[in-house]
């Protein structure tokens, strides 16, 4: 059996074993959950990925039948555009050593010609309601991700990679209907994200300059995921 791991950098994992300690082994939440289930992890997450990027990959990447999906839902402000060059999955980042080299030893993905932008940038749109648009983009894409997973007829679990998407509110009735259409049956802690956990103690972070979770954080988060959610879950595909 295979566990397909999708999401952004929080789902992709990194090579930091504990606070400011680099390791050669790349570990993320999918790695640990796959080990618990005795599955093979297929890590198709990418640092910087967006919600619509996850949805696109569910349509355009190839998956084995009977795969199980673990989907970390990326931050709401991001969206994808077609790029002039393929994504560099293992680039060395800027900043201190622990941040710069944390993500450059992970798995590769099929060639991807998309890069990520932010809805928070000014586009010069007239009467552009940024906050409500971000909610529209978020909830509609989560709903579409669920619909696609149902089409694939595979077992799946969702969680928020950074912050909780379902804690946010809207004043627009149509957007509220989109939010209400999202199923919470297979959605772990819909009001929280992994960063809510990693922010509780600096020992869970890559370094003092980078709040990405390290392996200590992943292990404790996955234990809670397994004990309070996965072990008590009956798969409902709806």
Question: What would you say this structure looks like, in words?
Answer:
This protein has helices at 9-12, 29-37, 51-60, 97-100, 130-152, 173-181, 194-198, 215-228, and strands spanning 2-6, 14-18, 21-27, 40-43, 68-73, 78-82, 114-118, 156-160, 187-193, 205-207, 210-213. The protein is built from 8 helices and 11 strands. With 238 residues, the protein is of the alpha/beta class. The chain starts with a strand and ends in a 10-residue tail after the last helix. Helix 3 runs parallel beside helix 5 (130-152) and helix 5 packs parallel to helix 6. It is 33% helix and 24% strand.
How many beta-strand segments?
11
* Tertiary shape: globular
List SSEs in N-to-C order.
Answer: EHEEHEHEEHEHEHEHEEH
Low-confidence stretches: none
Number of helices: 8
- Percent helix, as a range, is 25-40%
Radius of gyration: 17 Å
Percent of sequence in beta strands:
15-25%
Structural class: alpha/beta
The largest sheet has its strands arranged as: 4-1-5-8-9
Largest sheet: 5 strands, parallel
Mean pLDDT: 94
| End-to-end Cα distance | 22 Å
